[in-house]
Design goal:
Helix content of chain A: 25-40%
Number of strands of chain B: 10
Strand order of the largest sheet of chain B: 2-3-8-5-7-6
CATH class of chain A: Alpha Beta
Shape of chain A: globular
Number of helices of chain A: 7
CATH superfamily of chain A: P-loop containing nucleotide triphosphate hydrolases
Number of strands of chain A: 10
CATH topology of chain A: Rossmann fold
Radius of gyration of chain A: 17 Å
CATH architecture of chain A: 3-Layer(aba) Sandwich
Radius of gyration of chain B: 32 Å
Order of helices and strands of chain A: EEEHEEHEHHHEHEHEE
Order of helices and strands of chain B: HHEHHEEHEHEHHEEEHEHEHHHHH
Number of domains of chain B: 2
Largest sheet of chain B: 6 strands, mixed, barrel
Largest interface: A-B, 26 and 25 residues
Structural class of chain B: alpha+beta
Largest sheet of chain A: 6 strands, mixed
Structural class of chain A: alpha/beta
Strand content of chain A: 25-35%
Strand content of chain B: 15-25%
Oligomer: heterodimer
Helix content of chain B: 55-70%
């Protein structure tokens, strides 16, 4: 489903020095998989996550999404891919504070260019109910708990029915109990809804929820 | 459509969260729009006032005045000091067939003693035709008639304002004696208010009107300062002008008299006010420019403040143009808020000055104010918006 082939991300620090955040790394994530990318901080896992999430472009190698070369796509096409294909879950939740829970969840649907075969509002309300956030839909993010915020972020990731959910340290800002709940939730989504899930983490316990672990160290996938 | 409403709604949510900043940002536009709209309203009002004044004189009127009136920049000194007309001229002009009514005019200023108080007043001496030519109507009593002229009657028709001043009320003034420079007159009538005066225009309500023959008491030379005449509606006014000119040339040199149509003066005065108004509005527009720069400045700050938000929006699929649009909408909304407040303030200001200044607002200035402020929003919002749209998603989302 998504494949990184000998992907390099480097930054020129000065004339002589080049810093390699990621060096000729190849990763493949197959459909319906639940993988975790694990590595210590500074290992390049965030860079990897940005590349898989199409937020950044590699300086070398090629990324394929369903066998399509990303390097051939323009910015608008990549934006649409992020919109339709990938759902993001971040460590800091990254909800927009001035939008309500419902509006945050709906936000990706406002940017959709394809015609959706469902009403996003109805879907959002159904998801809110299903994930125990009823009566919170008109609250602003700062009025709900961290665990609830992360759940809102997951619902925002789900609203476009993406193929892939990309979660960057999704439990990093949560206590361990709430963190476990969030991980269980992701696990359920993978098992019941058959959504491909990739999480980036530095915690072994969290990685243990996944079925496959990709290790990364010093910018190399091992 | 939903997308559009959503963007506007979230812009206003931002404004709601920082009301003071929003207000201060739009203040520049507010002041600019206020200044432009108010000045336009005053200019329009002034123009309308002047043309109303001329309309009151009627369409088919002509004046003959001494000197060259409309040359060398307006009312030359010769019109006040130069040669004046006499009865011979009156009789000559009466012979012009396309003139249906004519009155000579002279004036006298002096102190009038009424029963209540004394006032410095001006009397216009004319024939009975004057009231018809100038469009005056009687309120109480009667106007001058031909026998008043023939008999050199010491009678006056009063403007309502002066009648009230001197005698307390219009009714009191009727049939009363008033002495002006030791000559005693009887007030035979009071005209209906003509309004006007106040700034530059003649305040007919404060004048007296008497028979021109009686006016000779004050002027043994029996001279007139001007003739006013009504022309035959069926004859082109320029034809009448030519006939009058021919008659006048028999006695005077070309540069010793002027024949003036009120519309000519009107177009000159309008031209002057038009230029004045353009200059004033141009100066006021500078504040719109400054306001626009203020918006641009704040929008740059907003882009920095919202870098993270831009990153989030890009991550979930917003295109560059979505971001561009969002920031332009915000700038335009800010600018329109300023424009609308400025317009409201201008409206109140105009209501406030209306009792003593004929300002009025028209639809064009409303449309212009809102159009110009949206244009400012777009023009000054586009650069910051482009900066926001061109943020790298990965940089933006990492931004704290």
């Amino acid at each position: 489903m998504i494949k990184l082939e000998k992907v390099t991300k480097s930054y020129k620090i000065d004339e002589e020095t080049t810093f390699y955040a990621l060096k000729e790394s190849s990763v493949e994530i197959k459909e319906k998989e639940f993988v975790s990318i694990i590595g210590p901080s500074g290992s390049g896992k965030s860079t990897l996550m940005h590349l898989i999430g199409l937020l950044d472009k590699p300086t070398g190698g090629e990324i394929f999404i369903q066998d399509r070369k990303i390097s051939h796509l323009n910015d608008d096409q990549i934006s649409s891919l992020r919109n339709e294909f990938i759902g993001f879950v971040f460590q800091q939740f990254n909800l927009i504070p001035k939008l309500t829970v419902l509006e945050n969840i709906l936000l990706p649907s406002f940017y959709a260019r394809k015609k959706l075969n469902y009403d996003p509002r109805e879907k959002a309300l159904a998801l809110i109910k299903r994930f125990g956030l009823q009566s919170k839909e008109n609250s602003y993010p700062n009025k709900i708990s961290g665990g609830q915020q992360q759940r809102v972020a997951i619902l925002r990731a789900l609203i476009m029915e993406p193929k892939l959910i990309l979660a960057d340290e999704p439990t990093g800002n949560l206590d361990s109990k709430t963190g476990r709940e969030i991980m269980e939730l992701l696990k359920t989504l993978n098992e019941k809804e058959k959504i491909t899930i990739a999480i980036i983490t530095h915690e072994i316990d969290i990685a243990a929820y996944s079925k496959r672990i990709i290790k990364i160290k010093d910018g190399k996938v091992t | 459509m939903q997308y559009f409403f959503f963007i506007i709604k979230s812009a206003f949510e931002d404004f709601r969260r920082s009301k003071l900043q929003t207000f201060l940002t739009s203040l520049g536009i507010l002041i600019g729009v206020f200044a432009v709209v108010t000045l336009t309203a005053m200019g329009l009002g002034l123009k309308k006032y002047i043309s109303d004044q001329f309309d009151a004189l009627g369409k088919n009127t002509l004046f003959v005045a001494p000197g060259k009136l409309l040359q060398s920049g307006g009312f030359g000194a010769s019109s006040l000091l130069g040669n004046r007309f006499d009865l011979k001229d009156l009789n000559r002009l009466k012979r012009v067939r396309s003139i249906t009514a004519i009155t000579p005019l002279s004036s006298k200023s002096g102190t009038a003693k009424g029963t209540k108080k004394s006032e410095f007043v001006t009397i216009f001496f004319s024939s009975e035709a004057f009231f018809d030519i100038s469009g005056f109507e009687i309120d109480k009593g009667r106007l001058l008639d031909k026998s008043d002229i023939d008999k050199r009657a010491k009678v006056l028709v009063a403007g309502p304002k002066i009648a009230e001043k001197l005698f307390g009320s219009i009714n009191e003034a009727l049939d009363k004696k008033v002495s002006i420079d030791n000559v005693s007159f009887t007030i035979i009538g009071i005209i209906k208010s003509k309004g006007g005066g106040g700034f530059g225009g003649p305040d007919y309500d404060s004048y007296f009107f008497g028979p021109y023959t009686t006016g000779f008491i004050f002027d043994p030379d029996k001279k007139f300062i001007r003739f006013a005449m009504k022309t035959d509606e069926n004859i082109n006014i320029s034809t009448v002008k030519d006939e009058v000119k021919k008659e006048m040339l028999k006695r005077y040199e070309d540069d010793e008299f002027s024949i003036v149509e009120p519309t000519e003066i009107l177009s000159i005065v309008n031209g002057i006010f038009g230029i004045m108004n353009i200059v004033l509005v141009a100066i006021a527009s500078i504040s719109l420019l400054v306001g626009g720069i203020g918006i641009m400045n704040i929008m740059y700050v907003t882009v920095s403040d919202k870098t993270k938000e831009v990153g989030i929006r890009r991550a979930i699929g917003a295109r560059k143009n979505d971001i561009l649009f969002q920031f332009i909408v915000e700038a335009v909304a800010l600018s329109i808020i300023g424009g609308a407040l400025g317009l409201g303030l201008a409206y109140l200001g105009i209501l406030f000055v209306q009792p003593f200044f004929p300002a009025y607002m028209d639809v064009t200035s409303v449309a212009l104010a809102l159009g110009v402020s949206s244009a400012i929003g777009i023009v000054f919002g586009v650069l910051p918006a482009r900066k926001a749209a061109n943020l790298e998603p990965v940089e933006a989302i990492r931004y704290e």
